[in-house]
Amino acid sequence: MKRLIKNIVLILTLLLIFACFGPEPEPKPEPECKKYVDEFYPISAGNTWMFEKLWYDNGEIDSAWTDTHRYVIENTHITIFQDSLRTISEGYWHSEFQGVAAELKFNGPDGIYYTGLTYRDSIWFYTPQLYYKYPADVGETWPIRLASVGYYFLDTLDMSCAAKEYIYITPYDTFLTTVYHHGSSMGEDVSGYWHLFEYYCYGVGLIGYDVYSTEHAIYDFTQRNIQDLFITYKLIDYCLY
Fold it and tell me: For 92-114, what is the mean pLDDT?
């Protein structure tokens, strides 16, 4: 009996030694970045889009304000929308907003929906609203609501499809995009309007956007003038999982 116990102890000791000095397991390879997924807005934790931000002054780039910014999907959630399960992205702009403030959006049956915001440890869900309709016809218009933290809606604006299959050139590549537009007043005490044109590519996501400052409440895509250009964001790199 004693000999049996000694043999068992010896075997266990040898196993422990082999475990300690055996070959280390190879680290798992990092998942490879994708450059396309088969959904309008790519939703997966870790997805990152890098943009070059340029400011303009009278049609000229103001080099003192050149910067880069990134948009990151930090987490995903599952929700039920119209009796179907949907994956919600929790994405934020800039590293200083990581874990602080993010927007919640998902692919619906007819485009990208916004459904809330996060701020620190709180999540504010509201009724999902269609933001970027896809597919959409040029000139088609639908209402959107701009929201802040909480259930406080800042304004209701008209979003429209300004162009389809528009070739948009960025420092990274050339993309075929759907262009969305909405405009807003600069403020009660300020004359003028902001006009935002956003460029989305199916399977890649946001490619860039342009902000124009004008005196016109209505500003058609064909009216764009370099003298009115205020800010541009253009894609310089991205990684999808």
Answer: 89
Q: Are 33 and 12 in contact (CB under 8 A)?
A: no
In the chain, what are the helix, strand and coil shares in percent, each to the nearest 5? 15, 55, 30
Q: Are 118 and 139 in contact (CB under 8 A)?
A: no
Contact status, residue 238 vs residue 34, Cβ threshold 8 Å: no
Q: What is the mean pLDDT of residues 97-107?
A: 86
Q: CA torsion 73→78→80→86, rounded to 10°?
A: 50
Burial (CB count <10 Å: 0-12, 13-18, 19+), residue 218: exposed
Domains and CATH numbers, the chain: 31-239 (2.40.360)
pLDDT at site 105: 97
Q: What angle do CA 68, 73, 74 make, to 5 degrees?
A: 110
What is the DSSP-derived secondary structure letter of residue 121? T
> Which regions of 2-152 does DSSP assign to beta strands (E)?
48-57, 60-61, 67-81, 84-93, 101-108, 111-119, 122-133, 141-147
